[in-house]
Amino acid sequence: MANTSDIKKGLCIVYNNDTFKIVEFQHVKPGKGPAFVRTKLKSLTTGKVIDNTFSSGHKIEEVRVETRKYQYLYPEGDTYHFMNTDDYNQISLQRETLDSPDLLKEGEIVTIIIRTSDELPLSVDMPAHVVLEITKTEPGIKGNTATNATKPATVETGARVNVPLFINEGDKIKIETEKGTYMERVKV
Q: Comparing C-alpha atoms, which of 170, 179, 70 is closest to residue 124?
């Protein structure tokens, strides 16, 4: 059993008979009253995100997990197939267990969190950013660059991202996977 001082981002806990991963947390010590921890919890079975507040010293049940590197192979409907890079075993996961499946490119290396008690895959952690090629976007209009104007673009995985006007088809861009937003153009 752990308590609220052990809470950190990525920790997996049992709460309300479900397994949750801590997405965000904030220790709050008000001037009056006891301290508490404000958290955002993501259910690893349903993908639903909830807000919860734990009082200081509250006991939480920690889930023992292991992280393993897997290579993304291919999609099949709502099922995504991955291969362990150490022993070449393959697993299949449903779309809802992935945070941003639209940004997943074949061959990408991801980290899968697995519950050690029953070898059940709980969630997939994408890399912090991915580099993808623009396959479709409208040409930028000259003279509209004075403001931070953006336009929609489709990348090679099918995801839609807002990009600056100077980005053209065929350009490679870096995308932040957590928010799904444009970061920068990548020189080839």
A: 70
**How much is the pTM?**
0.73
Task: Tell me which of 110 and 6 has the higher pLDDT.
Answer: 110
Banded pLDDT at 143 (limits 50, 70, 90): low
CATH at 10: 2.30.30.30
Burial class (CB in 10 A: 0-12, 13-18, 19+), 18: middle
User: Last residue of some domain: 125, 142, 167?
Assistant: 125
The pLDDT tens digits for 52-83 are 998 888 888 888 888 899 999 998 988 999 99
Upper half-sphere CA count for residue 46 (Cβ side, 13 Å)? 7
